[in-house]
Structures are given as structure tokens and as C-alpha cells.
Amino acid sequence: MRIRIKILFFILILNLPVQLSATPPIFDTWISYDAGLNPNSVCLADLDGDADSDLVVANYSSSTVSVLLNNGDGSFALKVDYPTGDSATAVAIADLDGDIDLDLVVANAGSDSVSVLKNNGDGTFSARVDYLTGNRPIALFLAKLDTNASYDIAVTNSLDNTVSILANVGDGTFAAKVDYATENNPFSVYAADLDDTLGPDLVIANNIFTGSSVSILFNTGDGTFSPKTDLLTGIGTQPTAAVAVDLDGDSDLDLAVALWNANLIRVYKNNGNGTFDIAPPALTYLAGQNPISIAVADFDADGDSDLAIANNNRFEISVLRNDSVGIFNTRFIYSSGNNPVSICSGDLDGDGDADVAVAAFNTHNISVLRNKGGLVFTNQKDVTLNTTPSFVLPVDLDADFDVDVVTAHFTFNTIRVYRNLDDTLLVVDFNYQSGTAPRFIVAADFDGDNDLDLATANSVTDNVSVWKNHGNGVFATPRTDYSVGNFPVWLIAVDYDKDGDLDIATVNNGGNSISILENDGNGIFTRQPPDIAVGNGPTSMTAADLDGDEDQDLVVANFLGSNLTLLRNGGAGTFTPVPIWLGFNPYAVTTSDLDQDNDVDIIVTNFRHDKVSILENLGAGDFVPSGDYAVGRNPVFVYAADVDMDSKPDIVVTNYFSNTFSVLINQGNLNLAPKMDYGTGVSPLNGVPADMDGDVDLDILTANFGAGSFSILENTLNTCTATAGDVTGDGKVLLPDIVAIINHVFKGAPAPSPLCRGDVNANGSILLPDIVYLINFLFRSGPPPINSGVCCL
């Protein structure tokens, strides 16, 4: 008997004939750019004279400074590295030699020096010149400290407990250092005229437990400084940053201090003469966990200075909104890369508002958060789960034409169903108990009733759990469990024996094998002995007709064996294993016709190599390496989907350690554009393309293992300007639109896309009442169609 099969395996790939540029950012979240090893400081300025802001990064472990030139739209070219002294800890930018272009100064903690790199005029830099500092310099600031109108260097020496001044002789060369005492462990330095008299004074945050303080050294007028005056911040507060800015609009400079151990920002109001009020409790504000760096800008364009703070141990930044009198009662939290250590602000994309760049020390990259106006930055939308998700699956479980979400929680031995309401709101509907430690979910019509059932691979109990869908997104309980091999970590739904129903195959990581569960046609499964041996430590599998013989072959990624096993289907559901390709701990594998030559190619992530590899199909299931492409750190899952809507499958890779997913745009002929990395929550596992908001383009859904959440990352390519009632999309509401709805409701024609075109009464579905509503509008002067959703507004 012919059984109509309906299957959704993680993603729906849309092929729409729209030509769009792949260069600009696609997803509405922070973007990650590669820096050197352990970037410790970031700042921005127009280095190449093209009127946009470029990025400069000091890289501690690679002892380099990276320059990333702006492409003109707020995206950045690949970094260019310049050698510095040992252990570059800080970088600052200024025109040191008076030639109008901007030069660089880098503090080198490992060689007790600063490096000066002169700009050649085009954003490239000459070889460094080094100047001695005190012992272990870790922060610096450039300011016109004396009377010769050129930029001098102030640098803090953490082991000397001093600040060194290197005076510019006027041509970008510097005199020998002059040292001034600070408190213990000076951690940051800022220069500004606090008393409005004799030039920029120095403000130094001293990061020491018992002597937590801010040292102020007043300028005597000639670039020399009086002995320090200490502003105590409280025992154990350990200040890490201090900035001077007029926060309350009285024209003098106040102080904002980051208190590392207290997780606070403390504001000290200037009395007008460079002395400061001891902050009352009202002037102490929660920042985040271990604030370490502060950037100042008018982020909401209301005429006052707001504060952005890098919180070192929370993988996030905080933005504190100024209420115009120096009170900060509103805090916004945004995700960033791992262990942010430095933050700066400026208009990166030329839209007139202040964006943010953050140095992420442990993930070796820079996070860029674009300001969308009103203190709203590009960032993912997170749904908190209160448990660690091992997998997330977007799928329409209730046949209402929007995408619901299923999550697996291996610490709680459950799966959780989230119902999508009006393309905007996900609510928890049901929790279902699974076997122990579910790691993977698949949705497929196992029993041939035209709705999607669920199955999980349960790694500890060595079984698969199956739930039957009642047709409305509610699943039958109790579940049915089926035994498989040792430690299953992956499963797929596949008709391996060509009998018209969907069977289940599992990857058994502990058994180095594949188990097959054969479907009897009614969603009842029988394990087919024996299990099929594959390579060492398999982690993933995909199914496709690799050799053009119209049956489903299997490809398995063997993590410990660093290879793939190709299982050729003999036509009767018997498989012949063939080891192919040696990689670097392949984690996940998928297939897609990347070069559009009517056969499927293989795509695999290399967990230890931070690359994705392409194996080209020569046409008969024989594969040759086609290229390796850099992605983020520790790539795990990979999917192929048309995210830029140009009718070619692109590649989406989730990067576990860098808290990002990489998008590699398909340029045709097996050529992929260099990656663009987008921010997620902490420790993402799988990142699945799906149209979460009903606007036709593919968004990304990620399971954030380290954050206990899943993230929705909106695709911003499609402007989505549909109109309710205009079902045919011709810009008019006429009789053919009624006919189109009738054909969908009564004749099984595809639903309008987006759905809101046909949902003329805005009740979330397209049924007979919509036909009646539109007839009344066109022929009986009834009310007009109601725009709804995210597309028909």
C-alpha cells in the first residue's frame, strides 16, 4: 500500500528566485571577527581615511596587533597582523607625528615596553619602535599632557606600582619615561582635566584587594604630575576601570568606576574642582559579573552619556542608561564572546548611532554589536529553559503553518514542546519523560497518518523513545522504547528498505556501530540484527542517495577515528561499509547538492581543526576533497540551507567554544565565501535553520548548552511587506485571491506564503471563515482584510 510520507528532518530549505548580495550581515545578532590569540584590548578609529571606523586589537598570546578595516557598512575585512613586543595587553590610537593619519601604541607586558607603529597613510603600518616602560605595563592612554600639542603616552606598570609618562618630542618619537607612584597593581589609566585648570590629569584604577582605590594625579601644567590622591572604593571591591565624563550635565567631569569583585559601577560626582563626593548607595549600580572595562557614548541619542561595561565572567556586556542627571536606573544585558576583557564604542556602520566592539579573550575574536537605535543592540532572542538543552528541533507539530520547538534535556530525561503563537511567542506546552540522557530528536511521520511523530536517542539507557502525534501537537503517552546499541547519540528517520515507511537508524558512540529499527508501516519498530560496524567513536550520520541508484545510503562521522564511513545501500536495505576521507575529529556530517550538478556532496565539521570540509561527489558516489573552510572554534553541527535566498544551499556551522555559528555563503561551483560568525548563547550545540517568524526567510535556532537556553536569531534579509487579502501577491485584492484561498482550503493547494496573506480575519489560520470574510469585503462592503503577523503590517 502506498503511504503518503510527511517528514521534517530538522530544516526546511526554501529555494526562492531572489538575487541578494551575500556580503552584508544577514542575522540580527552580534557578529564575531577573528583576532589574534587572546585579544586583550580593542579600540576603533578611521585608520585608512575613508570616513568609517576600523578596529584595532592587541593580542596577548600572539604578541601582535590586528587591524580590521571597515568595508564601509559596519562589516570588516580579515585581520592584518603586525608584530609588537611580548604579550601585548593594550592598544591606543592617535596622530602621534602630526601627519593627519592615526598611529598605534601598544603596551607589552612581557617585554616592559610600548611599541609605536606609524601609519603609512593607508591603514597599513610600519615596523614598530619600542620604548622602555616600568615592570609589566598593562594599560595605556594617549593625551596631550604637556604644552607642545602632541600626544604623549601614559602607561600603568602593574608590578612597579607606577605610571610612566613618555613625552612626545613633537615628531612621534618619545623621551625616556618618567615614573609616578600609584597604589598597588594599577590596572587602568584615563586622562582628562578633572579640575579644569592645568591640563589632563590622570585617573588610575588600582586592582588590589586591601587597597582598592582610584589614584588621581593632577597635572601641574607642563606634563608633570603631583603626588597621587587616593579615592578609596572599599576593601575588596578591586576596581578595574575608571573613566572621566560629564554624567550629570554640569560641565565638569565625573568618574565612573568598575568594581570587579563587587560586580558594580560606582559613580563619583565632581564637586567642580577635581574633588569628588563619596558615592552614596544611590550612585552604585549593578553591572554584571566581574566588570572589567567601560565605554562611554550616548547610546540612546538623548544628549547624555551612557555606559557600556564588559563583564568578564558572564560572556556579556551591560549597558546602563543615563537619565540625564547622572542616575543609571536602567540596565540592558547583551551577549558577547567568551570572557570579554575590553570594550569600545563608535559608529561602525555609518548610521549615526554608537555601536560597540568587545574583545573576547578566550575565544580569540571581537564581538561587534550594532546599535539599532534607542539602546537596542543586535542580539539573539533567548528563551530560558532552567536546564541544559542537548538538542533543539524546529518543526510544525500542530499543522498550523508555523514552526514550533522541541528541546531535549539529557540531565532531566525529558523533551519539552514549545508552541508557536502568531510567529512571535513560544510557550511551553508539554513536558514528556524520555529514556535517560536524550541527546537527539527527530520528527517524522512514522505511522502514516500525515502528522509528525517524535523520536529521541537516549544515550545512557541505550534506547530510542517514540511518541505518536494525535494530530494536534499533543503526543500519546506512555512513550514506546526500543533497544539499540551502546550509547546512541544521533538518529535519523530514513526509508532504508524502500517499503514506503520511515525506519530509524541510530549512531552508537560506545559501540562503534549503527542500529536499524525497521518500521512495520504502523509506527511499530523491530531492531534488525546485527548492528553495522563503523569507525571509532561515531558521533553523527546522514542519509542520501549518494550514487544515484534511488536508495538511501548512509554517511557516518567517526570522531575518534578521524574519518567517515560510507554505507552503500545494496538495494534491499543491506549496507556495505567503505571508509573514506581522513579529517580532524569529524563531529557532524550532512549532504547537499552544493554545486547543483544533480548529485549530493558531503559536508563535515572538524571539531579539533576549526574547519568545515567539502567532499565533492563525482557522480557515482565517489568523493574527492574539494576544500576546507575556516569556521569558529570547535565546530559541532552543520546544516545546508539557503539563508541568503539566492536558490543555492549555503552552510551553517555551530561553534561550541566561540559561542557563534558560522555562515558560509555558496558562490556556486563549490566555492564558498569566507565565514561570517554570528553570536549565540553560551556553548551552542546545534544551530538549525528554520522560518521562525513566518516571513519566508530562514532564521537560526540554537540550543545553548552552557546558558540553559535556546536562541532565535532573526534573518533580516527579507523585508516582508505582504498585505492581507493579496493572496496571489499581485498588489491587488480581487476575485483571484478568493479562488486561491478556496483552492487551499478545499483542494489541498499550498498555503499562501506568508500565511497572513490568506488569514484575512487574523485568527491565525486559513479556513472557510476567511473565504466568507473576503467575499463580504469585495462584494458586500464588508470590513477590509486585517493585517497580522510579522509580514502583513
Task: Give an overview in words.
The chain is mainly beta and 793 residues long. Among the domains are: 386-633, TolB, C-terminal domain (Neuraminidase, 6 Propeller), CATH 2.120.10.30; 724-792, Dockerin domain (Type 1 dockerin domain), CATH 1.10.1330.10. 3% of the residues lie in helices and 42% in strands. It is built from 2 helices and 58 strands. The strands form 13 sheets. An 8-stranded antiparallel beta sheet has the order 27-28-29-2-55-54-53-52, with no helix packed on it. It has a 5-stranded antiparallel beta sheet with strand order 1-35-36-37-38, with no helix packed on it. The two termini are 46 Å apart.
- The overall average pLDDT, rounded, is 90
How many β-strand runs? Answer: 58
Q: Span between N and C termini? A: 46 Å
Total helix count? 2
Strand content: 35-45%
Radius of gyration: 30 Å
CATH topology-level fold name of one domain: Neuraminidase
- Low-confidence stretches are 1-23
Major sheet strand order: 27-28-29-2-55-54-53-52
CATH top level of one domain? Mainly Beta
What is the topological layout?
Blueprint: E1 7-8, E2 31-34, E3 39-45, E4 54-59, E5 64-68, E6 80-83, E7 88-94, E8 103-108, E9 113-117, E10 129-132, E11 137-143, E12 152-157, E13 162-166, E14 178-181, E15 186-192, E16 201-206, E17 213-217, E18 229-232, E19 239-245, E20 254-259, E21 264-268, E22 284-286, E23 291-297, E24 306-311, E25 316-321, E26 330-335, E27 340-346, E28 355-360, E29 365-369, E30 381-384, E31 391-395, E32 404-409, E33 414-421, E34 425-433, E35 438-444, E36 453-458, E37 463-467, E38 480-483, E39 488-494, E40 503-508, E41 513-519, E42 525-527, E43 532-533, E44 538-544, E45 553-558, E46 563-569, E47 575-582, E48 586-592, E49 601-606, E50 611-617, E51 623-630, E52 635-641, E53 650-655, E54 660-664, E55 676-679, E56 684-690, E57 699-704, E58 709-713, H1 735-747, H2 768-779
Antiparallel strand pairs: 1-35, 2-29, 2-55, 3-4, 4-5, 5-6, 7-8, 8-9, 9-10, 11-12, 12-13, 13-14, 15-16, 16-17, 17-18, 19-20, 20-21, 21-22, 23-24, 24-25, 25-26, 27-28, 28-29, 30-58, 31-32, 32-33, 33-34, 35-36, 36-37, 37-38, 39-40, 40-41, 41-42, 41-43, 44-45, 45-46, 46-47, 48-49, 49-50, 50-51, ...
Helix pairs in contact: 1-2
